[in-house]
Amino acid sequence: MAFLTNFYAFLFYFAAFVLVSGLAFKIVQYSRTPAPLKIPTTPAPTKRSGVVFRMMREVVLFESLFRGNKWTWIFGWMFHFGLFLVTLRHLRYFMEPVPFLIQLVQPFGIYGGLAMIVGLAGLWIRRFYVDRVKYITSLSDHLILGLLVLIGCTGLLMKFVFHVDVVEIKTFYQGLYSFDIKPLPADPLLMLHLFLVASLMIIFPYSKLLHAPGLFFSPTRNQVDNPREQRHIAPWAKRLEQQ
Amino acid sequence: MAKATFEVPELTQYTEVPAIQPGAMAHSATFKAKEEFQKDLGFPGELVDDWQSKAIDKMGELLGRYRSLQVYMDACVKCGACTDKCHYFLGTKDPKNMPVARQDLMRKVYRRYFTWGGRLFPKLVGAEDFTKEVLDDWYCYFHQCSQCRRCSVFCPYGIDTAEISMAAREIMDSIGVGQKYCNEIIGKVYKIGNNLGLPGPALIDTLEGLEEDVYDETGVKVRYPIDEEGAEVLLVTPSADFFAEPHVDGLIGYGKVFHEAGISWTMSTHASEAANFGMFIGSYENMRRVAQRIREAAIQLKVKRIVFGECGHAWRVAYSFLNTLAGPWDFLDPRYPVPQHICEFTYELIQEGKLTFDKSENDDKVLTYHDSCNVARASRMGDMPGGQFEIPRAIIRATCNHFYDMDEDTIRDRTFCCGGGGGLLTDDLMEVRVKGAKPRLDALNNVIQEKGVTHMAAICAICKTQFSKVLPYYGMEMDQILSLHQLVSNAIVLTPGPDDEEEDEDDDLDGGDLDNDNEEMGDEAA
Questions:
Q1: CB-CB: which of A35, A43, A210 is closest to B75?
Q2: Using the beta-carbon criterion (under 8 Å), do A132 and B83 form an inter-chain contact?
Q3: Is this structure's pTM higher than 0.95?
């Protein structure tokens, strides 16, 4: 089992590296690329505080999607909120001692897991039965959905049907912090679950999952509507004026 | 009913989302710009030899220049929220007119050349080489987007297809594939000063004619000045306002408002165009060059304020970009925003009680109001977000007794484009224009049936031209579309100025003027 443990230890070091460096690269790229013109989708807030509020509504409630399509919103929001709870629940594997809030959230994490699967199923069904959505779906869209569904299902199976030794898992992850590789339980479901999660981490910065950081950099959402009051000019546009 | 070489869709009570019909509009091909028009704008005259690598380089350059493009290429998750939002998809059923599919025409090239996924596994992520077929698709479908931004309202990431259409057109221009309509017009602005190519003397002549017409009709001397140095306000208006119907009735209205306000104003032969087609082709440099003309005119005429006439995309460039492109405006009167919309100007005067209206003058009409896309979703009027919806409606309510809004889902920031914006207002795209107008006209037809609406007011030169042209295809009358300031013009009660009184005194002293007036009145009667 030493081989598998070592393999998973390496896999997670690698996945974490790819996720962090890949996302850091994209975030730096987005923030360094100028937005030369004021293009907020109006009506838009006229103050920075209003923009923060608008962004919060987008991030937390998916406001625009709610206006756009109720079914996609219901399933999409269920999935994302479920995933959020599941992620909070999983933090107990990565923290010692476990903070009170994370202890509190544990049972909700399970409901989150269920909501996540239902949401994903709804989103996936749309890709087959709505002709417009089917038209725009590519193989990678199916694969990412499949990946997430499998992650959710393997996780729920371990919770409800085939229990694994969670204490050993925690020991494994705690060990990774100090490069002290502790044995991982050799459970096939767990192996699959962790492999899929690592794959998700690796593809994150190179796929449509970039919508997560992208939203924060979307000029139609994050710009203040004040072009007459304040002159907005990008460095490359400024150079045109000096010619 | 206008004759069509294509099937005109039937209006429905509510716009239904059609089943997709792949390739339904693949035949649409707007005329390409000839070499001479391309050269004026600094673009190659015809498709360059190594166009593929040039285009990819250009895409790389734009990705580094525009955060919007970079983020929007990456962020789409294909959720489908935009798929039923574009009027061109709803009217044509062609799936490539769904915003996400239109974006994907560029996204698949982006993925192939700029992402690991697309370089290593193109099939998997839907990446494709930039082939001639793809380029042809670009030309076809990026000229079926009016850059109206309706998709961006509903996108969870605010992805704006307009940004992508603009970038695609700029890339195509840079390899010698430009659109005749837009590029020829921009050339005219550089050479003559406006989109329609009306030279200064023609404008002066037209405005003199307008002054006479208004005097004949109202007995009040309302001035329509041009190139008058030292005037308080420079009015920049779309050149269609100078002669086209119903546009010119709007211009007559602006003049009457200035007359009643007692504020001196002037137009300019140098900046005789509010519209800025540089935006349609995504070219910052050309957009800036067009916008600079307004700055030059403002300096030359020593004005203190700038007011824009009724024009949608123009108001976007004016409100959102003018300060960037041609500012800072520190030489103008700091008490007023630069620029102002004529509706803001008129509305303020109404608030101050400086205008008197006889609303019964518009009693022969039942009005509705079309929110022009770029005013609605890319600009503002007044101090409050949403002023662009409330101010024009307030002006209609102040000047008309009968007003009804169209269905809530089709107005304000959810308004449908007229179908002719973004550089598509050309006869070679008539099928796209007629079909794209369907969602708007469904809603219009609904209020015609249910509320007895007779006319629709708009504040955009493109909307006005487009509706006059496409309404007859659907069995409506071309004159059912009006300028908003035409309503103002009809209802406003004019105060005779000192000129008018002098005229009377002159008449007592010398019968000459009176005779002339009688002759003109006789002409009109005949």
A1: A210
A2: yes
A3: no
Backbone angles phi, psi at A187, to 5 degrees: -105, 125
Helix, strand, coil % (nearest 5) of chain A? Answer: 75, 0, 25
Q: Read off the pLDDT of residues B456-492 as tens digits, 9 standing for 90 and up.
A: 999 999 999 999 999 999 999 999 999 999 999 999 9
What's the rounded Cα separation, in Å, for the pair B108 and B122? 9
Find where tokens 């590029």 sit: B183
Burial B40-70 (b: 16+ CB within 10 A, else e): bbebbebebeebbebbbebbeebbebbbbbb
Architecture in CATH for domain B35-178? Orthogonal Bundle (1.10)
The CATH number of residue A126's host domain is: 1.20.950.20
Whether the per-residue pLDDT at B524 is higher than 80: the answer is no
Distance CA B431, CA B433 (A): 5
Report pLDDT for B243: 86
Q: How far is CA B120 from CA A206, A211, B112, B128, in A?
A: 11, 21, 9, 12
| Domain around A154 | 2-16+43-223
For helices A139-160 and A70-90, the axis angle rounded to 10 degrees is: 50
Q: Which tokens belong to A235?
A: 């460095």
- Three-state DSSP at B332 gives coil
pLDDT for res B5:
85
What is residue B143's predicted lDDT score, i.e. its pLDDT? 98
Half-sphere exposure of residue B252: CA atoms within 13 angstroms, side-chain side: 30
- Lowest-confidence range among A52-66, B1-15, B390-404? B1-15
Q: Which residue of A has its CA nearest to B377?
A: A42
For residues B347-357, average pLDDT: 97
| Comma-separated ranges of CATH 1.10.1060 domains in chain B | 35-178
Q: Indicate whether A65 belongs to any domain.
A: yes
Q: Give dist(CA A81, CA B188) in Å, integer.
A: 55
Span B230-256, average pLDDT: 96
Q: What is the ipTM of this complex?
A: 0.96
Average pLDDT over residues B398-409: 97
How far is A192 from B422, CA to CA, in rounded Å?
Answer: 51
Cβ-defined contact of B159 to A218 (cutoff 8 Å): yes
State whether residue B377 sits within 8 Å of chain A by CB.
yes
